[in-house]
Amino acid sequence: MSPFWTVSLFWAAAAACVAVSLVFVLPPLLRRSVAEPKAGRRDINIAVYRDQLREMEADRNSGLLSAEQYQTARLELETRLAEDALVQEAQVVATPKATGARKLGFSLAALLPVASFGLYFLLGNPAAITAVTEAQAHPQAAQGEHDIMKMIQQVEERTRQEPNDVQAWTLLARTYSAVGHWPEALNAWEKARKLRPDVAGILSGYAEALAVSRNRVLEGEPMALILKALELDPNDPKGLELAAIGNFQERNFAKAVFYFKQLYKQLPPETPYAQDILEAQKEAERQIQVAMTGLDNLSNQQAGEAPSTASAPRASIRGSVDIAPALKAKVNDQDMVVLFARATEGGAPVAAIRSTAGRFPIRFELNDSLAMSTDNRLSNYKQVNITARVAKSGDVKGAPGDLEGSLNRVNVGAQDVRLVIDRIRP
What we know:
This protein is α+β, with helices and mostly antiparallel strands and 426 residues long. It contains 13 helices and 8 strands.
């Protein structure tokens, strides 16, 4: 929450508390008095006489008083009642509340809020409101930055005193990288690299800082440093991360997936960083699937036909595809046959053609003219895996019941390759 809203809510709550206090205090003091006439002596006497008259009538009816005694007592009672009725008793008027109470109420209504907020500003700490808010919004900003800068100063002093301390240079480089001071980080990594060019973590850290200084492009020297780091330590986390990102940038999604997987294996799965790596891996895999759908857009070039563009022998593979005798009965002449080559580590096909099953054995030539992407061609590899599929399902990506055969690690430039479709896809 922003400091503005935090302060606003605080003062609103404080005002509400003062208002609630006034609600309980003021009404009794400000309420106007209502005239409350008091019962006079005459009214009381009249009520008494009526009760006595009823009692006398009850005594007469019960035989306790004779008719003569009743008349005498009644006459005496009426005489007394008449005398009381003639008395002019002053009317008792309502007494209003003392005006002092009302003045006290108005005084409290004015003074209580002023006193409450005045005492808070005098004895309290209003600045603490925004300070707490800022601390919540940036819990590590003030203290964290102070600690980091203090540590940087200490390490810099250490490098000045011991310029050949590779650990100090490495720590300084990592700290500068963490806070985003990349020019300083690049200088520190370069110092560390000169001292220990055989440490994978130093090479990959230097590659990252170098790439950042070049608009975050990993191609060229940064990638060469990354590959060198992975040669020294295949599990170097920073090297795997940068190798995956670099291949993703170059749209080599199969290699990116490989490096992402290797990195993810080393991470606690529940950490946010591990989840980010997993999402990046899934995105690379999705890109591979997108490339795979390009098979649907292949021209229906028949296997064995001469390609439109001549290729050097080393950038082509020639051979034939046949069907195993046990599976021939399962193949119709109109079934679609797909033949494609992939890099040995997987990924999108580097070359693909399709034909019909009625042409077995099928002669083929795979070359760069059959690439689905100019960035991912047969000539980019020394070895590939070749797969031939009778797509019974009609889906070039494969489905259960399709017939398949494959050859692994076929040298690019190989001639007279023989591939047999000999299994049913489960």
